[in-house]
Amino acid sequence: MAILEVCGLKKNFGSLKVLKGIDFQTEKGKVTSILGPSGSGKSTFIRCLNRLEKITEGTIRIDGETLADTVDGKVVYAPEKEARRICGKTGMVFQNFNLFPHMTVLENVTAAPISVQKRPAAEVEETAMELLKMVGLSEKAKQYPSSLSGGQQQRVAIARALALKPEILFFDEPTSALDPELTGEVLRVIRDLAAERMTMLIVTHEIEFALGVSDQVVFMDGGYIVESGTADALINHPKNERTRAFLNRMHEV
Amino acid sequence: MDFFAKAFTEILEWITYSGGIMPALLKGGLVSLRVFILTLVLSLPLGLVVALMRISKIAPLKWVSSTYIWILRGTPLLLQLYFVYYGLPSMGITFDGITSAVVAFTLNYAAYFAEIYRGGIESIDRGQYEAAKALGFSGGKTMWKIIIPQTLSRIIPPITNETITLVKDTALITAISVSELLRAAKGAVNRDLDTTAFLLAALLYLFFTLILTIIFKFTEKRCSRHIRRES
Q1: Model-level pTM?
Q2: Is A23 part of a structural domain of the chain?
Q3: Is B231 part of the contact surface with chain A (CB cutoff 8 Å)?
Q4: Average pLDDT score over residue span A111-128
Q5: Is B141 in the A-facing interface, judged by CB distances under 8 Å?
Q6: Given 1.10.1380.10, 3.20.20.30, 1.10.3720.10, 3.30.1050.10, which CATH number is that of B29-230?
Q7: Is residue B184 scored above 60 in pLDDT?
Q8: Are strands A224-229 and A57-62 parallel, antiparallel or unpaired?
Q9: Percent of the residues in chain A that have a pLDDT greater than 70, as a whole number
Q10: pLDDT at residue B228 in the model
Q11: CA distance readout (Å), A221 to A19, A140, A243, A245, B176
């Protein structure tokens, strides 16, 4: 069954049409990369999926539950509490990490499970320490984010998102704010998650990485999904002219 | 030798005199202190309520809050004090001097604190709200657990400023005949034709603001543990 189903998704910012009708779906355990030039709407698309942006039209279903639907041309969201619960099945990793600076690394990871999911603190802390170990940062648990490098902060952010035990994880350009020598450590963590069959949706510019990690690659341009398919088919044998042009540009860099 | 003996006697006399008027000054000082503490305890939370109304998405709340801030910051504190003490009784609300002072000061300082809080809250990066939302925090929890704690280190310096101003503003209540520190000093000066009392009052104000500065410095340090300073 599809864990995420998007139909006819449109998003306008005022008169600017950013998403012009996106149909997309993915299954449990699948890794999908979203490629495309800047301004193509990839980040907006992913941000619509957990209500960071309110959609203009379309349907979003997560794990079989309707988060947003369009009835008679009007978007209807699930009631706030319900919507929060449905979005609770998703996790998000941001380009700029967005760790909470006033909390230690451990507190960053445990805050939401304790105060949102109301899980017992002892259990949450144990899980959090395991997650920090997984991302290789258990010795930094008591430190504040400001003393960490960008790559370390992003790994904490991944652990923080995982602590809520999401069904699907969204990455919004997770390495774009990092110095080139720090992207590797973050991509390695994502690769480990892929090996564990974590369902992920990754907006990225790292084509080599996308090729290696993804079951499915989606190419977006001008507010549409222009082409999608297996990583190999899309990256090595693109059918669409715009995909080809984009990939050529990326290879030149 | 004669000169030193004379000077010594004078100093001794001065100390004896100061010791004599000190109890009256301290009594006045306690009244000032009481008004100060009550005002602070009431206006700090009231200011937060006003600030949250000001940034709320509900238009009437916003409007009420902006008007409140505009009026309270736009008129003299002394006038507000007169209004509460002399004006409200004609509407059937009568307070004694100290209560009037606390009411007027609380309303006034809440407006200033509200703007400080608002500045602090608005200085927090949008990404913090987004991260909180993505993690499932409700609006209220986002404010309490994520946003407001981060504003503390930023708002403490301006709050220190306002608080020190409040210490000195307590002297205004001498205008509604409350025997606070300045009035006690003035009484001694008028009675003895000696300005020593003013000097002693100044020292008491200074001592008090010094203690406050130390307390706030300590608090600021505690609230900014997470901020890395380049050493």
Answers
A1: 0.86
A2: yes
A3: no
A4: 94
A5: yes
A6: 1.10.3720.10
A7: yes
A8: unpaired
A9: 99
A10: 65
A11: 10, 40, 8, 11, 72
